[in-house]
Amino acid sequence: MNVSDDELDRLLRAANPASKQDAAGLSAAHIAIREGIIRGTVRPRKTRPRKTLLWAGLTTAVATVAVAAVVAVNVFAPTGQAVALTPPPLEYRSSGSLAQVVDDAEQALLAPPDVEQESRVHSVGWGWSVDMEEGHVEVVPQDITFVWAPGETATSTIVAGDPYWSDAERPAGVEPSEYQPGDLIDEVVIPPEEFTLAPEATNLSGSSPAELEAALAVFGATPDSSSGELLAAITGLMQYWTLSDDQHATLLRLLVDAGDVQVLGETTDRLGRDVIGLRVASTIPERVETVFLSVETGRIVGTESELIEPLDTLPVGVISYTMWDAGR
Asked: Which of 2, 77, 205, 313 has the fewest CB atoms found within 10 Å of its own CB?
């Protein structure tokens, strides 16, 4: 897949828009992963020859790969038409006003049991495995655990999850995954000298607005950030930390205070949980972002990105999602 630097930058921005301060630097490990994606050398341990693995949701630095996966899949679409092998949109039921949704979430966050902050994050997502030369496409569901600590080696472990489609539902042209649920797909190890995270995020421990604003600034948030830009920063922070209930309550207030947050309603997320969907301000006209609050716990348990108009080679549809708190 030959993509110019400008085209790659545009596609990556479409997948994971960041605010103006986020242009500065990836760590050496992140750069290596990104370059591996571009060259087609990112692949799992268990693989057929010349297979390129395109991930959705590994860490903040590579969450953008969902878009690259769609681009690769489009290469193999019959008659040259763009085909999005993406989940169907969620269907929403009516719920309360934004004020009521926030109040209900805050009450749920006050209820036991409390969730403590820890530098271990479990997320659920999916990706495509694409053989660029043979035109072979398969869906690789994944459970990802990211563990780190200051001055220590960081490890991201990717394990095969339950298949997204049953045999009867799988789209034409998509092969069943060669992985069984629980199989180790890959393990990414980042040495301490290559793991870069600013002290404001590394040392986060409190739940005050000032402390969380400082941590979010590491991921590009500013006092003038829109709710869409703030959600991008929140997603970045939550790739590194499982946050406490008090921290979630503060993040929700900061997000709502940023403005242009719309209640979509109640729905069942892609893990079968009851959630409330909140649409935030768009960062690009063609794309909308949704954040999900658990009805049961009040916590932020997922985000989803959807194109509502075609963008370059990307078709309309859900292009990425990340889900947290899968075991709670």
From this structure: 2
User: Which of 197, 212, 307, 206 has its CA nearest to residue 255?
Assistant: 212
Q: Terminal CA-to-CA distance of the chain, rounded, Å?
A: 40
Torsions phi, psi for 316 (to 5 deg): -65, 140
| CA distances from residue 170 to 130, 138, 165 in whole angstroms, order as listed | 16, 10, 5
Distance in angstroms (rounded) separating the CA atoms of residues 143 and 17:
24
13, 78, 139, 215 from 33: Cα distances, Å: 17, 30, 20, 24
The neighbouring-strand residues paired with 141 are: 126
Helix (H, G, I), strand (E, B) or coil at 129: strand
Taking residue 147's Cβ as centre, other Cβ atoms within 10 Å add up to: 15
Q: Taking the CB of residue 221, how many other CB atoms lie within 10 A of it?
A: 28
